[in-house]
Amino acid sequence: MNDKNTISVCAPRRFSRSVRVGPCVIGGDAPISIQSMTTHRPRDVEATVSQIVALETAGCDLVRVALRNRDDAEALGRVRARIRIPLIADIHFDYRLALLALEQGVDGLRVNPGNLGGDDRARTVIEAAKEREIPIRIGVNAGSLDKRIHAEHHGITPAALVASAMKELALFEEMGYDQVKVSLKASDPIVTIAANRLFTAQSEVPLHLGVTEAGPPVTGTARSAAALAVLLAEGIGDTIRVSLSGDPVQEVQVARTLLESLGLRTPGCRVVACPTCGRCRASDLPGLAARIEQRLQGMHESLTVAIMGCEVNGPGEAAAADLGLACAGTRWRLFAKGEALHTVTEEEAEDSLMMEIQRWRTARER
Q1: Burial of 275 (0-12, 13-18, 19+ CB in 10 A)
Q2: Helix locations, the chain, DSSP H
Q3: Could you tell me whether strands 331-336 and 323-328 are parallel, antiparallel, or unpaired per DSSP bridges?
Q4: What is the predicted pLDDT for the residue at 50?
C-alpha cells in the first residue's frame, strides 16, 4: 500500500520543555512554529506593521524586530497594539534597550548575553524578563562568537557554538529562570547541523533552527533546506526561520513549504508545475505558474493545483491534483478532481482556473 498518509520520514520529536511566547507555545508537543524578521526599523511604525501583517498572512507565527536605539524601543508599544502575532525584540550591545522593550510589552527577547556588557547587565535583563514572565532566546551566531571561546576552540566549530550556549544557559540557571530557548547558527549548513546535534545531547532547552546569513533567495533556500530538513527529520527543532536576503515574506513561504514537504505541517495550497522541457507547448508556463502562485498567497486551505505544459505527464498530473490545467497545443484543458471540465484558450486559462478555485472554496465553506 503506497499511501503517503501512512509514511513518515521523520524521527519522533526530541523532547524539550515548553516555552510560551504570547499565545504561541514553543517546544514540548507544540507544532513547529515559523518565524521571520522585519526589514524595517520599529520607529517606522506604519511600515513595520504593514510588513508584519503581510508576514502573518503568509503564515508567520512569530515576528522579530531589530532595535538600534531608544527610538526603536519606544515604538514597540505602538507596533504591538496593532498586530496579532507575538512580537520579539532583537537586542545587541545595549542592555537598556532590552529593558525598554520589556516595558513596551513585547512577547519575547532575542539576546546574546555575551555582548550585553558583562554578566551583571545580563542578570539585570534576565531578572526583568523573569518578573514579567517573558521568554528569552539565547542567539549564538558564528559571526559573533565570544572571542575567548573562539580562541579556546581554535575557530568556529560546532563545539564552540555549544560551549557559548551552555555558558549563557548557566547564567539563566543561576537566576532560576527556565523560560529560555537557544539557537545555534552558522552560515555553513554542516556546522549548523553538527552544533544542533551536539546541543541536543546535552540539554532539553527548546531549539530555534536556522542557517544565518544563508544568502539570496535561491542559494539561501538551498542552504537552509540542507540544514533544516536534516535536523527536522531527526526530530530536532521547535521553531524555525529561513533567513533570506530580500522580502521576508519569502522566508515564511519557504519555511512553510519545507514543513509541509516533511509532513510536519498540514499542507496548504500547493502549486505543482512542470519543468518546461522541450516538450512544453505553453508559451509562458513559468509566468502562468508564478502568477497563479502569487494570486493564491494567503490561502492556507489544503489544495493542490497543477500547471502542466505538455501531453505526456500533463493530463495525468492535472487530473491527480484537486484542480489543474494541462496544455494541449493551442488549448488548455481544465481539470477538477480528475474530471476534465472543458478547454480554454491560453488567454483564458489563468482566470478560468481562478474561477474554479473560487467555486471550490465557496463549496467548501457551505
Answers
A1: exposed
A2: 45-58, 70-74, 76-80, 95-103, 119-132, 147-152, 158-175, 189-200, 217-233, 248-261, 285-295, 314-320, 346-365
A3: antiparallel
A4: 97
Give residues with Cβ within 8 angstroms of 320, minimum separation 6: 306, 338
183: confidence class by pLDDT, cuts 50, 70, 90: very high
Question: What is the structure's pLDDT at 1?
Answer: 32
- Non-local (6+) Cβ contacts of 56 within 8 A are 63, 83, 84, 85
Question: Is the Cβ–Cβ distance between 62 and 24 less than 8 Å?
Answer: yes
Edge-to-edge strand list for the sheet holding 331-336: 269-273, 303-308, 323-328, 331-336, 339-345
Report DSSP state, residue 120.
H
Distance of alpha carbon 52 from alpha carbon 58, whole angstroms? 10
Q: What pTM was computed for the model?
A: 0.86
- Residue 215's Cβ-count burial label (10 Å; 0-12, 13-18, 19+) is middle
User: Is 42 within 8 Å of 90 (Cβ atoms)?
Assistant: no
All three cell numbers of 41, joined, read 526599523
What are residue 351's DSSP bridge partners? none
- Cell triple for 337: 478532481
